[in-house]
């Protein structure tokens, strides 16, 4: 029944349709129900009456794709009186019925409904029917274009996405080069694929587009079959992942990866233009104090605000990144960069040192800035970063809140330190570190009653090295634990040998703060005692005042663990640290060693030594004076009840063999 215009549901029109033997029905798209049907249509729909068919809610079993397609029809009816001939499969009471149907618009009570004229049953094979259904329901956009790029067909998914139903294939693309690339690919090999941004009803979207040359089944002319998949969410996820990989989550600044991907090309372009490069390492001073006192949330807030201050200082050819923790990196390029770097560095120091309000407090955090320059040589970013790092630590060593430029002496010093660390490790493995023994002499009798074991390095090339040449590096590198264990083991074995030789001597050994803080200290000492056979009561461990301050329970537990082994504890270099009478009473101590500086100044300022000796007598602690070199010093100490002394008046530290000769 050809209908050339949109009819209205006027009186007499339904009676005319009802008389036809062709199945005809009117479908209410908005309410998804059959509005009216003739007797032939009732037979198709397997319905006894119009009222029964009207009562059926078609939305219950209607797929999203079909609903979407019907809405598209309704829009086309409203816009340009469209008319469609398509093969559809109906499901009256769940049984499939494939029909060739003519769809057109019909105005009913002001609303647009759809007039459906079933022309014939479709007798295609099952594969053809299923492919048509798949084309209808797939979420992939599929369209057929003629040689001019005019749309010949769009499936429901393509219709739902297209921005303008009249647009050509070329107009679909935002960047014309994408269309050109696909067209050239199809011309060359018959097919092409590309990721491109396209115009859609939802704005710009990323689509994966596949195009293939074919023929139009109606006209037989050349055509183009195009399928599209929306990958915008994937693109956004990739962009987000890329951002997170290249930016610091907290501050939003580029991170170390971002520095390499973004900053490096910028610097390379600058060098090719003949410009000079400067890198700045910025480290916040005492930032740990903020975290420890105000919490990590306030610390993070401080970092964000510091990042903001740095970003505001950046000029056109300057970039800032966060490397991690409280470290930031600034790169800059200029024809003459050194003066500009110094000016920027000073502004950075000033800006970062300004107090800020955190947790109800005004917090001031300064920064140390190290600068390295690439003036005329080839760009080597890794070397520049290493040099800037060295310069930054030089700024910290200079008192913090300083700006320091790299110089070759800094690198030479670091290389020497690395070489020393490696040499110490080798020496420990080779057993080159040996215990020397300085006599501990009883003041009253002048007899040698003990010895302090002191580390020496019998270096194969440099000879005998004193502790000042290696102790600091051992502590910085963590090798002090192994060094301390080796010296303790040697001292314990020597004490056992002296005992077997009939000499009742006490041996004392220094413990570094790192050793004392080691949870395995008591176990290690116990193992040394068992392996050596040393008498526990003849082994004394010396600790400095600093290890006794704070951490009362942990300190007491460590000291109790050693005391349970039968070992004596002495406080070394008393008076040089945070001297506190309370801990002398709180902890299980046996001896107190008077520092050599107080002994050396007895002639000029004896008051401190006088106070220490008086205190020891009151607390019942064994007194050992260090650095005694003259008879006058010894007499002064004897008059005040000092029990033992060490010093050159008797002997410096000597090897075990030389010590044996002193005993004889």
What does this structure look like?
- This protein is an alpha+beta fold.
- The strands form five sheets. Strands 18-19-21-22-23-24-25-26 form an eight-stranded mixed beta barrel, surrounded by five helices.
- The protein starts with 12 loop residues before the first helix and ends with a helix.
- The model has no long low-confidence stretch (mean pLDDT 88).
Tally of helical runs: 24
Q: Compute the gyration radius: what is it?
A: 45 Å
Biggest sheet details: 8 strands, mixed, barrel
Can you count the beta strands?
Answer: 26
Distance between the termini: 134 Å
SS-derived structural category: alpha+beta
The backbone outline, from C-alpha atoms, is elongated
Main β-sheet, spatial strand arrangement = 18-19-21-22-23-24-25-26
Question: How is this fold's topology laid out?
Answer:
Layout: H1 13-18, E1 24-28, E2 33-37, H2 39-44, H3 50-54, H4 64-80, E3 83-90, E4 97-108, E5 111-121, H5 126-137, E6 141-146, E7 151-154, H6 156-161, H7 176-189, E8 191-200, E9 203-215, E10 222-230, H8 232-246, H9 256-272, E11 276-284, H10 287-294, H11 296-313, E12 318-324, E13 327-334, H12 337-352, E14 356-358, E15 361-363, E16 367-374, H13 381-397, E17 403-405, H14 408-430, E18 433-442, E19 448-459, E20 463-465, H15 471-477, H16 480-500, E21 506-510, H17 513-517, H18 521-532, E22 539-544, H19 552-564, E23 568-574, H20 581-586, E24 591-594, H21 596-600, H22 607-619, E25 622-625, H23 631-639, E26 644-645, H24 656-663
Parallel strand pairs: 16-17, 19-21, 21-22, 22-23, 23-24, 24-25, 25-26
Antiparallel strand pairs: 1-2, 1-5, 3-4, 4-5, 6-7, 6-10, 8-9, 9-10, 11-13, 11-16, 12-13, 14-15, 18-19, 18-26, 19-20
Helix pairs in contact: 10-11, 11-12, 16-18
């Amino acid at each position: 029944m050809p209908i050339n215009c949109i009819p209205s549901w006027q009186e007499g029109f339904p009676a005319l349709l009802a008389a036809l033997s062709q199945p005809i029905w009117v479908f209410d798209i908005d309410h998804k129900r059959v509005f009216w049907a003739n007797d032939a249509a009732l037979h198709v729909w397997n319905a006894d009456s119009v009222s029964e068919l009207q009562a059926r809610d078609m939305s219950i079993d209607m797929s999203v794709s079909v609903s979407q397609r019907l809405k598209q029809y309704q829009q086309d009816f409203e816009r340009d009186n469209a008319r469609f001939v398509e093969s559809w499969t109906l499901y009256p009471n769940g049984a499939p019925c494939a029909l060739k149907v003519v769809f057109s618009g019909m105005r009913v009570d002001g609303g647009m409904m759809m007039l459906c004229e079933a022309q014939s049953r479709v007798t295609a094979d099952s594969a053809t029917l299923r492919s048509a259904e798949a084309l209808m329901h797939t979420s992939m956009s599929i369209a057929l274009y003629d040689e001019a790029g005019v749309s010949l067909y769009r499936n429901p998914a393509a219709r739902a996405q297209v921005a303008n139903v009249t647009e050509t294939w070329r107009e679909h693309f935002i960047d014309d080069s994408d269309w050109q690339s696909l067209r050239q690919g199809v011309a060359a090999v018959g097919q092409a694929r590309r990721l491109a941004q396209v115009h859609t009803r939802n704005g710009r979207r990323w689509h994966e587009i596949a195009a293939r040359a074919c023929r139009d089944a109606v006209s037989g002319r050349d055509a183009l079959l195009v399928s599209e998949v929306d990958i915008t969410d994937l693109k956004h996820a990739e962009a987000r992942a890329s951002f997170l990989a290249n930016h610091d989550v907290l501050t939003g600044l580029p991170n170390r990866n971002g520095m390499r991907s973004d900053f490096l090309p910028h610097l390379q372009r600058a060098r090719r233009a003949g410009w000079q490069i400067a890198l700045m390492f910025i480290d916040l001073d005492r930032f740990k104090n903020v975290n420890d006192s105000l919490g990590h949330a306030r610390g993070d807030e401080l970092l964000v605000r510091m990042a903001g201050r740095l970003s505001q200082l950046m000029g056109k050819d300057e970039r800032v990144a966060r490397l991690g923790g409280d470290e930031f990196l600034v790169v800059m390029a200029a024809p003459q960069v050194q003066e500009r770097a110094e000016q920027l560095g000073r502004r950075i120091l000033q800006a970062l040192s300004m107090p800020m309000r955190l947790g109800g407090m005004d917090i001031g955090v300064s920064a140390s800035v190290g600068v390295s320059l690439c003036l005329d040589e080839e760009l080597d970013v890794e070397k520049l970063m290493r040099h800037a790092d060295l310069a930054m630590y030089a700024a910290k060593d200079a008192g913090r809140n300083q700006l320091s430029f790299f110089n070759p002496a800094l690198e030479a010093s670091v290389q020497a330190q690395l070489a020393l660390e490696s040499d110490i490790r080798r020496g420990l493995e080779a057993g080159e570190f040996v215990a020397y023994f300085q006599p501990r002499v009883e003041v009253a009798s002048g007899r040698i009653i003990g010895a302090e074991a002191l580390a020496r390095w019998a270096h194969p090339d440099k000879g005998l090295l004193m502790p000042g040449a290696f102790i600091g590096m051992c502590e910085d590198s963590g090798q002090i634990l192994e060094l301390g264990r080796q010296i303790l083991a040697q001292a314990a074995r020597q004490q056992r040998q002296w005992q077997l030789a009939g000499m009742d001597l006490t041996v004392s050994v220094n413990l570094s703060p790192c050793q004392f803080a080691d949870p395995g200290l008591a176990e290690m000492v116990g193992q040394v005692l068992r392996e050596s056979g040393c008498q526990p009561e003849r082994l004394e461990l010396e600790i400095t005042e600093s290890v006794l301050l704070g951490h009362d329970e942990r300190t007491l537990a460590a000291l109790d663990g050693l005391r349970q082994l039968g070992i004596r504890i002495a406080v070394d270099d008393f008076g040089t640290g945070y001297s506190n009478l309370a801990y002398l009473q709180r902890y299980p101590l046996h001896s107190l060693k008077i520092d050599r500086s107080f002994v050396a100044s007895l002639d000029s300022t004896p008051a401190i030594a006088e106070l220490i000796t008086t205190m020891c007598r009151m607390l019942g602690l064994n007194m050992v004076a260090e650095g005694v070199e003259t008879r006058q010093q010894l007499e002064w100490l004897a008059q005040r009840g000092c029990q033992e002394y060490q010093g050159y008046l008797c002997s410096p530290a000597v090897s075990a063999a030389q010590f044996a000769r002193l005993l004889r």
